[in-house]
């Protein structure tokens, strides 16, 4: 069995967390200077590990093994949410790097090919799962033209990052036996139940929306309450309506969040004439996602009927639930049972992952390690080192089993 | 009687509206390049009118007559709300300029002294009524140190505008018989009742607050609804509570507005750990303002008792209601009756004006002209030219009456 070097794995993770360090975590938005520096650092680490590495036109870092045997793709993402944790995404990429290197170093596995991908913008600073969608040819040039972040377009961000005009790499599904991704759980199921490993059964679907409210901008002193068309008040009413109605139609594991609100012009003494909010929900059941969307449509129709402002609901993305390959689940579970008997469980992923895109093209599997107290997308995010190392060993065991065709 | 030159008045107003022109209005935030250009342009116009002009350390433009007779101060402000109208503030300053020039040109009034002030940041990009408060010594260096706008501190804005280190001018109350300010009504009382002039009886009080909500930033997919501490949801609930409770305690003319909302970090897939909103209300009755503030305190206490997020209410400013001088109201009414018999009314001002600051030190009066459809703080703001000109003539008549001691 290939020898996973714990010190090397942890050392690389610590070094990577220095790019954009913030308190005990990392602030590394996609295509920022820190993010690009981390990508170029990864290219060097991949080359050291014997992979042929490149950064493609969407910013994904892809390292290809020179071995001729059966190929397995391993990956995750490098960028972080704002002021977020050091492991989210980064750990899965470092698992790929360490497994590729350990396989290459062991004559018994040197013929097996491990390719590693760090998919750009999984976190959605400019879109959602941009790198894995691009790699799987689910991202058109028109989509890139239309995408924008909080303060610039995706095209502008790519140009500033020096990526404009580069070729985007594409997946050849026939060349791989499958895809594996390691990740922190980001919830507290494992941590609160004293388990150390989660074998992912499937990834929840995710629908993202933009609400736009149009009223009438006016003077906030002289305009009587009765005649106002305050877009901010319309937004608050609609948010409140969601909070009232969603619990009655949501599934037991459904979640929904308003992540951003903008009032326009945003001055203290002006009635907002426009308002905008980003809203999303998630569930593992397709039927539930559809029911939640119908409920949103009803809320919007009611708000428009009630007035005085108008509301528009725009679907920014719909990502369906995606099941993981049963044989890959078995391979991960066997390896988990070998390294940590009785300390693992099968579970759905409530977070979006690149695996759900690649699983449409290749058999895919995911392994979780515990997030302490379930904290994630926050700089306090952490996992015990022994669990990080255990996860990588299990991951390597499953990868070997899959590559040898036992899965 | 001094000869108000209609073409000169309208020409100056049109020229001034070119600084920061936006559609049919103006975008000229305090200390922006366009705003500073307008201030330097005003200095030149004042000098042309025979005034000795300066821009002081807070950005106010002050022009002083060289005449030795009784002195009247006339003013308003130059900067605008974002993407707002061409008359708000600007018209009152141009009234001062035209009246000063007409008085100086007429031998019968050349001994009467008209000083003109364009008070900085009435609109509150960095504070509230900064220029008039500074002129009346109600703005300390510590307040300037603490003040900030949407994207920079007041100190930084002053430095960028080249104003750092300049002396701030101060009012000598003994040298003036009083203060007059002309302004567009910004409401639709005059326009909807077919009247052409409003004599202001008093200016409503204005309380401005910042609410800060603290929850727990976390992953918006993996964190169960039941255990979330979503600061954005807390903000929406509190806004909704204000909408529920305020109508029951507000006066008939009370108004309240949430002008800005920020969710932190503001990413679509992150539960907001912090949220902030700017909120204000206005009324002409001091008792009503106090009741509204007590209601806010109760709402905040209830929210904190309910949890799971904490809420803090911070008073950013409290500006009490301010009555206009009765003799100045009489002088304006007599001039109004002379120029437009039966076409005027006495009315409170629902908007904040520099007059309410200066009225604490000097007898003060305000004259309104109609805002078409009551639209203000929007680029569609407008007033008929004939009403602008009429207002200036009435203003000049009242100024002469006041300066000759008839008021």
What does this structure look like?
The structure is a homodimer of 407-residue chains. Helices cover 35% and strands 24% of the residues of chain A. Chain A is built from twelve helices and 17 strands. By secondary structure, chain A is of the alpha+beta class. Chain A folds into two domains: 6-204 and 321-403, Zn peptidases (Aminopeptidase, 3-Layer(aba) Sandwich), CATH 3.40.630.10; 205-317, Alpha-Beta Plaits (2-Layer Sandwich), CATH 3.30.70.360. Chain A starts with 5 loop residues before the first helix and ends with a helix. Chain A has helices at 6-16, 33-48, 90-105, 130-135, 141-146, 154-160, 189-193, 231-249, 286-306, 326-339, 355-358, 385-403; strands at residues 21-22, 25-26, 52-55, 61-64, 71-76, 113-118, 178-184, 197-203, 205-214, 218-219, 255-264, 270-271, 274-283, 310-319, 322-323, 344-349, 364-369. In chain A, the strands form four sheets. In chain A, strands 3, 4, 5, 6, 7, 8, 15, 16 and 17 form a nine-stranded mixed sheet that branches. A four-stranded antiparallel sheet of chain A has the order 11-13-9-14. In chain A, strand 5, helix 3 and strand 6 (113-118) form a beta-alpha-beta unit. In chain A, helix 8 runs antiparallel to helix 9 (286-306). The interface between A and B is large, with 66 and 66 residues.
């Amino acid at each position: 069995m290939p020898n996973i070097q714990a010190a090397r794995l942890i050392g690389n993770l610590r070094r990577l967390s220095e790019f954009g360090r913030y308190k005990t975590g990392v602030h590394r938005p996609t295509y920022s200077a820190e993010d690009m520096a981390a990508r170029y650092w990864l290219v060097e680490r991949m080359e050291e590990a014997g992979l042929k590495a490149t950064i493609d036109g969407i910013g994904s870092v892809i390292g290809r093994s020179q071995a001729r045997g059966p190929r397995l793709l391993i990956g995750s993402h490098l960028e972080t949410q704002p002021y977020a944790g050091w492991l989210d995404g980064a750990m899965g990429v470092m698992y790929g790097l360490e497994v590729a290197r350990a396989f290459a170093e062991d004559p018994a596995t040197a013929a097996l090919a491990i390719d590693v991908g760090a998919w750009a913008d999984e976190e959605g600073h400019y879109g959602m799962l941009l790198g894995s969608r691009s790699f799987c040819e689910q991202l058109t040039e028109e989509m890139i033209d239309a995408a924008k972040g909080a303060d610039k377009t995706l095209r502008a961000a790519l140009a500033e990052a020096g990526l404009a005009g580069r070729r985007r790499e594409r997946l050849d599904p026939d060349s791989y036996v499958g895809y594996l991704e390691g990740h922190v759980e980001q919830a507290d199921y494992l941590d609160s139940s004293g388990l150390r490993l989660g074998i992912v059964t499937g990834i929840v679907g995710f629908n993202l929306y933009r609400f736009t409210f149009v009223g009438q901008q006016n003077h906030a002193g002289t305009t009587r309450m009765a005649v106002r068309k305050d877009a901010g008040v319309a937004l608050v009413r609609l948010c409140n309506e969601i909070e009232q109605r969603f619990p009655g139609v949501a599934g037991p594991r459904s979640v929904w969040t308003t992540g951003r609100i903008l009032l326009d012009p945003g001055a203290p003494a002006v009635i907002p004439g426009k308002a905008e909010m980003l809203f999303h929900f998630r569930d593992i059941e397709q039927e539930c996602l559809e029911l939640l969307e119908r409920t949103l449509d009803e809320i919007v129709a009611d708000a428009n009927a009630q007035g005085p402002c108008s509301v528009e609901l725009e679907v920014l993305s719909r990502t369906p639930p995606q099941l993981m390959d049963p044989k890959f689940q078995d391979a991960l579970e066997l390896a988990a049972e070998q390294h940590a008997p009785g300390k693992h469980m099968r579970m759905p992923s409530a977070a979006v992952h690149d695996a759900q895109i690649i699983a449409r093209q290749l058999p895919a599997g995911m392994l979780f390690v515990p997030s302490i107290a379930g904290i994630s997308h926050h700089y306090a995010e952490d996992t015990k080192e022994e669990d990080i190392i255990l996860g990588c060993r299990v991951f390597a065991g499953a990868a070997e089993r899959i590559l040898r065709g036992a899965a």
